[in-house]
Write a structure and sequence with these properties.
Elements: H1 4-19, H2 26-33, H3 37-43, H4 47-72, H5 76-93, H6 98-103, H7 111-138, H8 147-168, H9 171-185, H10 190-198
Helix pairs in contact: 1-2, 4-5, 4-7, 5-7, 5-8, 5-9, 7-8, 8-9
Amino acid sequence: MRDTRTELLIQAETLVRSRGFAGFSYADLSAAVGIRKASIHHHFPTKVDLGAALVAAYDARYAEAMEAIRAASTDGPGRITAYGKLYLGGVEQGLGCLCAALAIEGEALPERLRNDIVVFFRKHLAWLEQVLREGVADGSLRTGLDPAMHARSILATLEGALLMERLFASPAAFGDTLSALVDRVSAPARAVSDLIASGRQL
């Protein structure tokens, strides 16, 4: 059985990912969990405290997942595909990315949360840059890729695809976008490279 704090975080995350940070109140959370608002304030004195805890928990889950991807996948395309599939659950559940849902509120969001979100996305960009750098080095990704530029492109593409396919309720279309994204950065098939190197016509 989950403790009250954990249940509050789970329900609050769903509310933020479906409605946005400004779109729910402690009254909504109270109804979802079935406890009094005073009990919520015991765990999270302010809504900003709750938001910060949500981002920290979300960040920890992603960090664990990305570490597992690096351990399980040995090449760039495999790692990028596995990373992209982390977003697929949001499409299937009709939920957006927590940090994107917060970021979209811009200046209306408390500065503490804006800073936490910046840190979250910088970690993802750094992880993707490293994956791209290693993929170029081992020949699984295209030679000459700019890791920083393509890391931003990958992140923006996945966040955009999550937003759009969540609206259309289309996990299959998200999968197509992910496949196209991976194809765009993958090295040409070895067989094709060998044919070109040998001067043979395709």
